[in-house]
Amino acid sequence: MTNLRRRTAQDVVELAEEIRLQLADHLLLRPALRQLLERFKFRDQGGDTWTLGPASRTWYRLGQGSWSRSSAAPDDALDGPADLSLVGKEGLTLLAEQPVSAETPAPDNDPAAYVQGAVQRITHAYAAGAMHSDAAEALLEGIYAVDASGTVWALGVQSRKWYTFTGASWQLSARALDRAAFEGAQAGSAPQSCGNCGQPLPAGTKFCPNCGTPVPSIGSGQAGEQAVEKVRRFLAWTGDRVPEPLVRAWTPPKDFPEALIDCPHCHAINVGEVETCVSCGRALKPAGQPAAQSPAPASSTAHQSSVPEQQRPAPAVRSGSVPATTTAAPGGAAPAPARSRRVWWFVGGGFCLLVVCALIAAVAGIGLLDPFGAQPLVSGPAQSETEPDLLVAPVIVPAGPLDASDVRLQDDFEDPARTAVPLFGQDAMEFDLNGGTALMTAHSPGALLAMYDSPSVADFVATLELSIPEPVPGAGYGMVFRSDDAVDGLVHYYLLLASPANGTLKLGRWGPGGFTDVAEAPLPANSGNHLEISVRAEGSFIEVDIDGQPSLSAEDSALLQPGILGLAMLSPRDGDQVVFWDFSVEPLER
Q1: Would 164 be classed as within a structural domain?
Q2: Is 62 in contact with 250 (CB distance < 8 Å)?
Q3: Is residue 390 domain-shared with residue 481, that is, in the same domain?
Q4: What's the pTM?
């Protein structure tokens, strides 16, 4: 980092409060917030690095490679990034600070006094936070004086001592620049200082007693030529134009000591271990339970998951398919028992459904067919090529209605009337519910989808839990989002697929121009065959967490309109299977 600005601790507190207010108003996108927190670091005059939690108001100091809380704020001036502005939602520019310029004084008859006054004015402007370091150093590069012999003089901004330019570097001068160096030249006298090292010259000497440089004779024209040549060399020099830097170069660490927390109620982004949401004011976690966190921006060190590993037994697989297996958590832990179900509701609801269906069949004399005209609930053949085909445009058939609630979609795979609808017949795929799970089985290679007809959302947070009984190289498992629901097929959508066998996570986009790879990232090293996938889509930004670990971040503005969602499997063979446990989607405010 080169361009810095000086601030006080109170200035940083006010900036942190502005960040908190932007979070409360849902104006910050998660990728932009991560980038901001990477830059939200400040260095005191002793060289220590500081930062401040936007909501917790906790000061942190970096020492020996790790952050520690400080009970007191830094007590001296802080150098930090000159520009902390960022673009929020709807293109709003946030945290923009007005720049203040400082003008240098006009030259007077005393060049030494002019240089001293100009340097003092510029450094004071930076110290007061009125000027960025780049702007200040650009002005300082033009503050120098040239004496009669062509020697270039400049003042050190830190030491306030004089330097002379030797042709290849700056050299600290043993004496200060004064008016005599210029007045003697106007009277036609011999130079009083060496043009090479700046040391005083005894009267009548022909060589500098310090460096041995010849002293030009008066009236021969040689003095003027040498003076012009020295100035020309200085102007052509590409090194440091100032002998002392205004501020030391600094590259702060990227990691931030506080984690990002999503509010489970309004989905506002919170920073730090705060009890209540900055936006809606409700509790971020139930009593006695930790809040769901995702790590804040980190350096090159790999993220460590703060979410405990979950394990569940794989569901029974029908005979003739892939044998049933048990997916254990990494480390050999035994599978956890299946979660409890509301058995009475399921049995009672199923009994009522059978009664109603029997009455319809008895009165109307028809079978259990599609109410839209006695058509099968799925249509359209799957691709049968030997290579997986992502370019699938199947027909969508409406699924059952969803309850209106804060959770726009919550499928626990208990109710066949409320789940996704497979897009192909049983010759291509099967999608069966089995006691709170959904088993998707491939009977032909290709991209196999099961779609929900609602909700249609653009910005959302989706959570999908799935397990793969037998991971297959080249296969992928995940979801579709921002898809159209045209009657004649899917014209566009995003497709997110995790491939445990390949260790990859891929995001692609299907549209009129074909299939486009948007982003690819490795799966976390400790991920297994049971994955918890979290997708956050806000405008053109798409972020994916695997098992609580940030795994993929992409920016793509091709599909920004609302669309429906679905479950997906890319299968290279017959018999491939994936088990879906839970799928929930909640909209975000834009």
Answers
A1: yes
A2: no
A3: yes
A4: 0.53
